[in-house]
Amino acid sequence: MASNLDHNTQSLSRFPYCFTEDGHLCHRVTGESYVFRFNCLDVEGTQREQATLCSFITMYVYNILEHHLQLQRAFLPHSEGFVYTSPGALKNKRALLVLIQDTGSMHCGVWSWRMVAREGLNKGSQIPYMLWAMTESWAVLLMNPNEGGKSPEEHVCSVWDCMISQSAAEHVVVVAHGYGGLAFVDLLCRRAEGVESRVSAVAFIDSSHNVWHQPLRVDGRGWLRAHSKRWVLSNKPLNGPVGTLRAGMQLSAGTLCHDSAPVACMESVFRFFTKAIRPRASPIPFSIITRSRRLTQERDTRAGINSHDHNK
Fold first, then answer.
1. Whole-model pTM?
2. CA 23 to CA 126: how far, in whole Å?
3. Residues 6+ apart with CB under 8 A from 59
4. Using one digit for the tens of pLDDT, what is the confidence trace for 85-98?
5. Which tens digits make up the pLDDT trace of 176-230?
6. Smallest Cα–Cα separation from 211: which of 191, 228, 194, 195?
7. CB atoms within 10 A of CB 263
8. Helix, strand, or coil (residue 250)
9. What are the phi and psi torsion angles at 56 (to 5°)?
């Protein structure tokens, strides 16, 4: 599918669907929800319609990011595309939330434009994640791995080198969906020392990564076991254990739909992050006082008192 976002505003405004106030896509005249249709007699026409729909959703989300959430575009060097960040994101000392979407035609702020079209912005966009992070005063960085002509792996590495590695955040937490998980593990392979020292937690959601097929060091696999959780598609209840010992601990995303998985387990993801960055309390010194030790302490105390009276 075409990913060109340079459709002019006039052609998008002629698109017969628009968003309602509650974030659902409806027909401008009838108010009916958008329905995906495939016309086998006009394949190119179907593809053009869906390309226009993808662009319409992307531009609409960009408008929300810039004008409602006050995010800013940050352009990468050498014409490698751009990302979105919250104001002063790299100076925020508390935490930086990084979102990496799946490969394909998804751009900044969108987990799945098809899910946006079917279920609305709250189900298919990254906006709920951003709003949650902002209530915690966390900074936000939205990756854009399908923009700029580079591979997702190269994009993630470039953003790490020129932005994330230089941020002031005490904690960096990452949500990686689909191929975004593979791109993050590729970053861990390339920048192991930096990633392991800066990233506090990673949430993999129906991720494409494979710790046995990617060139990951043994200690890198150990780091992932200690600092990440993996939610996978399953008909089991949310957070139920799934998988084999070789696959490691995996949790159910509570859905069998790849596109809806990020929103389905969002609350669990943020509980994981909150626990990961919570300051650990210092251990309290503790000793067991036995009966004989207590009697000895009482005897010594009485002896001290008697000695004080004698000196008088």
1. 0.85
2. 13
3. 5, 7, 12
4. 999 999 999 999 99
5. 999 999 999 999 999 999 999 999 999 999 999 998 889 988 899 999 999 999 9
6. 228
7. 22
8. strand
9. -60, -45
The token duo for 105 is: 């035609």
Residue tagged 């046995």 (tokens): 212
Buried b (16+ CB within 10 A) or exposed e, 161-191: bebbeebebebbbbbbbbbbbbbbbbbbbeb
Contacts of residue 73, Cβ cutoff 8 Å, sequence gap at least 6: 66, 82, 83, 84
The residue whose two tokens read 């159910």 is 252
In degrees, rounded to 5, the angle at the alpha carbon of residue 206 between the alpha carbons of residues 26 and 239 is 100
The neighbouring-strand residues paired with 229 are 203
Q: What are phi and psi of 31, to 5 degrees?
A: 80, 5
C-alpha angle 76-81-84 in degrees, rounded to nearest 5: 75
Please count the other Cβ atoms lying within 10 Å of the Cβ belonging to residue 259. Answer: 23
| β-pair partners for 171 | 95
Q: DSSP letter string over 119-159?
A: H-HHHHBSHHHHHHHHHTT-EEEE--TTSSSS-HHHHHHHH
Q: Cβ distance 85 to 71 under 8 Å?
A: yes
Q: Cα(3)–Cα(11) distance, rounded to whole angstroms?
A: 16
d(CA 264, CA 122): 11
Assign 180 to helix, strand or coil.
Answer: helix
- The CA distance from 155 to 251, in Å, is 28
Closest listed residue to residue 5, CA positions, set 61, 46, 74: 61
């810039």: which residue's tokens?
66
**Bridge partners (DSSP) listed for residue 228:** 202
